Amino acid sequence: MTENSTEKATGANTPPLRKADGTRILVMAAAAIFILIGLRELRDLLVPIMLAAFLAIISYSITDFLSKRLNFPHWLSVICTLIVDAGVIFAVGTLLRFLAADMKNTLQSEVTLKFQEKYNDFICWLDRWDLGEDARHIFSAPQDYLGMEKIFNVSQAVGTGAVSFMSITTLILVLMTFLLGEAPLFKKNFKNLPNSVQGKQQVFSALKGIQRYLFIKTIASACTGLLAWWLCAAMDVPFAFLWGVVAYVLNYIPTIGSIVAAIPPILLALLLGSLGDTFIIAGGYIAINFMIGNGIEPIFLGKQFGIATSVVLLSVLLWGWVWGTVGMFLAVPISVLIKLALENSGDLYWVAAIIDDNEHPKPDSDVNNH
To answer: Rounded to whole angstroms, how far apart are CA atoms 160 and 203?
Structure first.
């Protein structure tokens, strides 16, 4: 066979790369970038709406249970759901104010004295090497960091944040009430759309999966917070209850949240305790996160959404840049909905296949060629 005939045979099996395909990919990438920038600029408007929507998705199971199992009227089921959600959220706001007051009192008493002792020991050790004077210029005494004025400013900032939290929460609850109230209408209209039955089933399956994910994640986060609280209390780390709450909240953020939650208690153990205490705290957090994150959660969740772990981590960083901390919390549900949209798109199905956690079989043509 000649070279020309070989090239023709090879070219016959390999589809040529068209310039239109590359141009279309570049246009779609540019559009995605502009959309993300627009979402970031509109975060103050969109974040409460997204929180209300996801809170409505989570809470709809309560409304549905009251309506179908207990035969409540739909309006009464929505009101009861709203009362439950409002009670939980406002309890969190009250807890924040209580923790701010407790932190203020604790910092004024024992913590400052312990910091001062550690600081004096550190400076004395540096004096042996004639570095104490330079260290005094670089590191101020603990009283400069934990003075009454700064403690008051921190507690006041937390109190102001709690008030802002309450006002935003009220807006979210109002939006959630309307979404829950009209959920049956949305569901009926969606069923009447001229879409394929399979596509509709995928949407309902994704929404139920998000509900199940958030429910199991809440239980896992609660276990993580309780164990972190017990660990810090057993090791006499200040603000043990606060670190338990932080571990509970940040556990909703995949991978990154557990690491960030462990940093403050480890630093406090290093500054106020011994090196052995620090290793115990660090090892305890690693054991807790490994047991729950790599043991309990996969048993109940499994490969629920079929998204690669690296893609989940990248989505946390991306949505954290777009919508801040709220974006990190909502990264997994948003990624699930985006993956669902990509799977039902003819042009972008290949993106969903790449980020899928399950291996896709090769097409028959590729298998035959090889």
So the answer is: 40
